[in-house]
């Protein structure tokens, strides 16, 4: 459906066979209403996600001309680029955006999504958190008519438009590239979470190894926390890799934070990159070409992802008909060759 219609007092009145005046008074805890009726009204309101919405009440057409955005963290360069892409389309179309951060917490994601709904946003752009397994909070809002589009982290549990990148292909091609350079012990550091992004990248890495005649050595696969901020856990993973009898000659990192933090830790561990171990990973940091050594990296089209997702969302918001056919856009990545991963001597 075209736009989100928040639950109103009239809706509650009709559902409970009460007058709108009675519902209004019950919600405002008026002495004129019995405790039993107050309980009935408030229970229904709570169960159906009702909140008084002063913004919506002040809008003649019931639209706020605002879009809610849910990301893990705005300090991640990739998400920052996506937000820039979102803004470039939204502002030109007359929409403001409200940005919320989950910090990879499912509980915070639920709170943020509900807060945005209560602000009467016209639609939402969501990258689900790494903790999120259950998306009932999003399904419920979609069923009530709120357009929701997933980007980057997507799920098959809900039918809607989605925008992502070639996660499997980019991991496959990058691993095959490492093999072509002569690397034989290719470690992979990925996340603890089970998001579509991490699953596809791990699968691409494993398939490329098998297709190139290598066995998948699980000792070379390390799972770390999704934010990449836990240096202690990542340090433990690196220590375990270098303690192997046959240590890795290259590390392939599955996401941005791990790539840059791993480089920092390797310097602290007195491991020279690329002499002691080469490094290749996903990263959208603008510093990739000036840090020491410049990072061979897979860059994702964050700005384009934001633009595409926003175009699709605004089309949904404006569409007067119920949309039942949805599209998944898969954008290409780019492998940028620099100094951290030279041909193996």
Which helices and strands, and how do they pair?
Elements: H1 9-16, H2 20-27, H3 35-47, H4 54-58, E1 66-71, H5 77-90, E2 96-101, H6 106-118, E3 123-126, H7 136-143, E4 148-151, E5 162-165, H8 167-180, E6 186-191, H9 196-211, E7 221-224, H10 231-243, E8 250-253, H11 256-268, E9 278-282, E10 296-299, H12 302-318, E11 328-331, E12 334-336
Parallel strand pairs: 1-2, 1-3, 3-4, 4-5, 5-11, 6-7, 6-8, 8-9, 9-10
Antiparallel strand pairs: 10-12
Helix pairs in contact: 1-2, 2-3, 5-12, 8-9, 10-11
Write up what this structure looks like.
The protein has helices at 9-16, 20-27, 35-47, 54-58, 77-90, 106-118, 136-143, 167-180, 196-211, 231-243, 256-268, 302-318, and strands at 66-71, 96-101, 123-126, 148-151, 162-165, 186-191, 221-224, 250-253, 278-282, 296-299, 328-331, 334-336. α2 (20-27) crosses α3. Among the domains are: 1-52, Orthogonal Bundle (434 Repressor (Amino-terminal Domain)), CATH 1.10.260; 167-299, Rossmann fold (3-Layer(aba) Sandwich). It has 12 helices and 12 strands. 43% of the residues are buried. The protein has a 6-stranded parallel sheet, with helices on both faces. A 6-stranded mixed sheet has the order 7-6-8-9-10-12, sandwiched between helices. By secondary structure, it is an alpha/beta fold. One of its GO terms (molecular function) is DNA binding. It holds the Pfam family LacI. Residues 7-61 form the HTH lacI-type domain. InterPro entries: HTH_LacI, Lambda_DNA-bd_dom_sf, Peripla_BP/Lac1_sug-bd_dom, Peripla_BP_I. This is LacI family DNA-binding transcriptional regulator.
